[in-house]
Specification:
By secondary structure, the protein is mainly beta. The chain has one domain: Lipocalin (Beta Barrel), CATH 2.40.128. It has an 8-stranded antiparallel beta barrel. β2 and β3 form a beta hairpin. The N and C termini lie far apart (38 Å). 22% of the residues are buried.
């Protein structure tokens, strides 16, 4: 009976791959973020819609991507960049992704998991996942 209940619980938590699609807002990070997650082919990507540190001191002018290691991209606006790339759904998790952070110019490995239809966790890391950081998001659309 216990085995049946645990297998039902794990089955119930697996959501369809496309349930990650939508607009998500961070709930527990120092820098507040909003992403639009979308699908292209069999992978998922995220466009940065807003970040609490995205604008210059006037509060209106988006900062440039001046820390980007690609000099040709340093003059682009941070707003609207696709900085979550290549997440692939596999057995209840999204793996193999990359997260570009315009604040430091680094690209991190990324995995994600839907905790519920309205709760998403990202884990960004360099090298080993254990040394990374988890961020929680809630669906807003």
């Amino acid at each position: 009976m216990l085995l049946a209940a645990s297998s039902f619980a794990s089955f119930a938590q697996k959501l369809d791959a496309d349930k990650i699609i939508g607009v998500w807002e961070s709930v527990d990070s120092e820098v507040q973020l909003k992403f639009d997650i979308y699908q292209s082919g069999d992978k998922y990507f995220g466009k940065l819609l807003w970040a609490s540190n995205m604008y210059e001191t006037d509060g209106k002018t988006p900062k440039k991507d001046f820390k980007n290691p690609d000099k040709s991209l340093q003059s682009r606006s941070r707003k609207g960049i696709v900085n979550i790339t290549n997440l692939k759904y596999d057995n209840g998790e999204y793996t193999g992704g990359k997260l570009y952070n315009p604040s430091d110019g680094n690209t991190y490995s990324l995995k994600a998991k839907l905790k519920s239809i309205n709760q998403l966790e990202f884990r960004g890391y360099m090298g080993v996942s254990l040394l990374g950081k988890t961020m929680k998001f809630k669906r807003i659309n």
